[in-house]
């Protein structure tokens, strides 16, 4: 058997913990022999959930953590005071290299703070962005930053573009990924001060395939492979994207069930419809990695079900196998030498 990737999972984080978290972990372990999962949280609760499934005992272990960081808690204070929380214990395992990655559906603020304070940034990285894969008509686009840095600087945005390109090329197999900056128009002179300052810097980057501005409405059509933004606008794009997809699905289901003829038509369309909807299901791509840290930290939705947890764990394997952190380090080092 090939070397196993050790993925620590916050079993207590999220709206559906620990049930869906444990279920997703078991599904991941049963689908891949190259994964060893470390479930972190209250032992009794985790063991109760594990008892429902059949799995390789060698692939899943439990590490007890007596505390839980709740979503509403101030992140910095929680990280400092709750040393035995599932998030802090998991982050420390990554820091000590006892785990290759950490996955959590818990408090976003605590994950962001813990990632920077406990795991730490790669030397030369100014701000680690959250990078989320979103489905498009042509495949997927990596949107970053989508939640970590609401007050980014132009130099941060350039690093986002570089790290996003490395991720798309090596994890998603996109050759020379097209980089776009999220803007309110296609023209170079449009945008706020941050966008206007960042645009010429991205144009000067010979290592990037920068294609200019991209409007939010063009992202679902695959206008670029890497969409660069500061976290405020990025998070709005992401949440609007998710909400619109959910609303359209609800309207579609209601229309198909509205009468006998609609039901018959829906029956005929069902196979093609399932394929189309699956292509636009963001959960199949896992969570959002916090790029630029010394170890891998992945944040999934607070409402994550088992399928997103499973895919987030598998995503960690691809990240590790493709040596994304090492490539980011190499890239940043060469960038500093050329500065």
From TrEMBL:
<keyword id="KW-0594">Phospholipid biosynthesis</keyword>
<keyword id="KW-0963">Cytoplasm</keyword>
<comment type="similarity">
    <text>Belongs to the PlsX family.</text>
</comment>
<protein>
    <recommendedName>
        <fullName>Phosphate acyltransferase</fullName>
        <ecNumber>2.3.1.274</ecNumber>
    </recommendedName>
</protein>
<dbReference type="InterPro" id="IPR003664">
    <property type="entry name" value="FA_synthesis"/>
</dbReference>
<comment type="function">
    <text>Catalyzes the reversible formation of acyl-phosphate (acyl-PO(4)) from acyl-[acyl-carrier-protein] (acyl-ACP). This enzyme utilizes acyl-ACP as fatty acyl donor, but not acyl-CoA.</text>
</comment>
<dbReference type="InterPro" id="IPR012281">
    <property type="entry name" value="Phospholipid_synth_PlsX-like"/>
</dbReference>
<dbReference type="GO" id="GO:0008654">
    <property type="term" value="P:phospholipid biosynthetic process"/>
</dbReference>
<keyword id="KW-0443">Lipid metabolism</keyword>
<dbReference type="GO" id="GO:0006633">
    <property type="term" value="P:fatty acid biosynthetic process"/>
</dbReference>
<keyword id="KW-0444">Lipid biosynthesis</keyword>
<comment type="pathway">
    <text>Lipid metabolism; phospholipid metabolism.</text>
</comment>
<keyword id="KW-1208">Phospholipid metabolism</keyword>
<dbReference type="Pfam" id="PF02504">
    <property type="entry name" value="FA_synthesis"/>
</dbReference>
<comment type="subunit">
    <text>Homodimer. Probably interacts with PlsY.</text>
</comment>
<keyword id="KW-0808">Transferase</keyword>
<keyword id="KW-0012">Acyltransferase</keyword>
<dbReference type="GO" id="GO:0043811">
    <property type="term" value="F:phosphate:acyl-[acyl carrier protein] acyltransferase activity"/>
</dbReference>
<dbReference type="GO" id="GO:0005737">
    <property type="term" value="C:cytoplasm"/>
</dbReference>
